[in-house]
Amino acid sequence: MPGDNADEHFVLKSTLDEIGHNEFTAYPDDGTIFKVFADERFQYLYIPSEFVYITEGSKRYLDTSSRLNQNPVLCRTLHRGLVCPRGPQCGFIHTDIERAQNHHLFRRVDIHKNDADEAGFLRYDTLPTGFIFQIPMHGNEAILQLLPSHTLYRTKGSLNLYRLTAESTQGTSVRRYTRCNFFENKKLCHKGYDCGHLHVAYED
What is the pLDDT of residues 122-161, one digit of tens each? Predict the structure, then answer.
């Protein structure tokens, strides 16, 4: 998310005064990607800057000194097909979503929710079967649990663990990857697939 890593954040503040702002003014096409909540907060959208209009919300997103830029959200009014009365003063993100989703850099990333379904339904893709991972127990990392690979949702962390395990000669995990604190404690990880930790879907 913005502010996690300054290297991931492209600041356009120097161009704001030059461009001016109204509800029809978008940012320049300079490679900047806005990472924004969809209004239902179940997905992140990665939106190229040329499809994002200049609003108070988008300016806060780009202001790395602001504490209000952590959870940018699409304007619900605008994206329900209505006219946003606040225009450039809106505290949310205005974007041309129909055009943006045809761009090769546009992405939708599911936010992972930790809520076991009564019918055993898995919300997201899990790892393939074939390996047993040694994973520290959440809350007590001195205890190792043995979990089959197919009980983990696919994240960058779990995929890396799977790859390293496949490359090892023993066929067991070669490095301790920890469970995601947000997924375990908050029952929600905003990074979803992009998380570097483990999201355990269920335990056999």
Answer: 778 999 998 999 898 888 888 889 999 999 999 999 999 9
Specify which residues 188 forms β-bridges with: 113
Which among 161, 156, 155, 157 has a CA at the least distance from the CA of 131? 161
Between CA 90 and CA 56 the distance in angstroms is 6
Q: Tell me, what amino acid is at 130?
A: G
DSSP the chain: -TTS-GGG----HHHHHHH---TT-B---SS-EEEEE-TTSSEEEEEEGGGEE--HHHHHHH-TT-TT-SS-BB-TTGGGTPPPTTGGG-SSBEE-HHHHTTSTT-EEEEPEE----TT---SS-BPPSS-EEEEEETTEEEEEEEEEGGGBB--HHHHHHHHHHHHSSSSB--S-PPBPHIIIIISEETTGGG-SSB-B----
Q: What is the value of pTM for the model shown?
A: 0.62
- Per-domain boundaries in the chain: 6-110, 112-194
Neighbours of 141 (CB within 10 A): 12
pLDDT of residue 196: 95
Cα separation, 11 vs 2, in Å, equals 11
The answer to whether the CB of 185 falls within 8 A of the CB of 197 is no
